[in-house]
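Propose amino acids for all 205 sites.
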């Protein structure tokens, strides 16, 4: 039991800690909340730090990890790092689903049998609507990739970048480690507000 057990049980804080692995992306969706695109600054969280953050997250009381970007699967060495994070906590990677080459699928095979899932993004069940935002033939490319994976899910994120500058509206602290500090800050804000925060999921950059 940790200081986060009760807030999570009460629904005050989500159990999944989200990590932004990088900000660049092979797509350039018209609405992208992180303004990700092929040529933006990479701003990568060093992949070798993921296992250590996962271990700290588990010790702090988080019950799951999410890895997002940008497009996380562009990060060299990510599959190996995910093996290590999944050994600590159930791990989800959020991807645009366009990079599943035979080689990448081979690398991801290391994760077979671990508590690991892939969440694939599409923006509409209508191919034309989806492709208008995400690029030509995106819909068919992603749908063709899904059968090669174990699952497909969807999740929203709050805005993090506007006009190339970090949006600080939702910033609760600039201290990200140890994780108990941002988690404590989030709970203090929720307590002061006397209600659940707009988001119950802590994200660090
Ligand atoms: S796939 Fe995701 S991260 Fe990449 S540009 Fe589109 S919305 Fe942004």
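Proposal:
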């Amino acid at each position: 039991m940790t200081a986060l057990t009760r807030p999570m049980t009460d629904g005050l804080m989500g159990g999944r800690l989200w990590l932004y692995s990088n900000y660049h992306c092979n797509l350039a969706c018209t609405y992208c909340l992180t303004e990700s695109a092929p040529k933006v600054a990479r701003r990568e969280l060093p992949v070798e730090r993921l296992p250590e953050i996962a271990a700290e997250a588990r010790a702090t009381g988080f019950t799951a990890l999410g890895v997002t970007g940008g497009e996380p699967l562009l990060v060299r060495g990510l599959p190996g790092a995910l093996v290590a994070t999944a050994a600590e906590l159930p791990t989800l990677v959020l991807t645009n689903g366009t990079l599943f080459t035979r080689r990448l699928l081979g690398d991801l095979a290391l994760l077979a049998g671990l508590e690991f899932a892939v969440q694939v993004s599409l923006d509409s069940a209508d191919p034309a609507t989806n492709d208008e935002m995400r690029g030509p033939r995106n819909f068919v490319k992603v749908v063709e990739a899904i059968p090669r994976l174990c699952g497909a899910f969807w999740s929203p994120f709050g805005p993090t970048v506007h006009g190339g500058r970090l949006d600080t509206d939702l910033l609760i602290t600039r201290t990200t480690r140890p994780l108990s500090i941002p988690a404590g800050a989030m709970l203090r804000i929720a307590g002061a507000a006397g209600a659940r925060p707009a988001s119950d999921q802590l994200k660090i950059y």
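The chain has one domain: 14-168. Confidence is low (pLDDT under 50) at residues 152-156.
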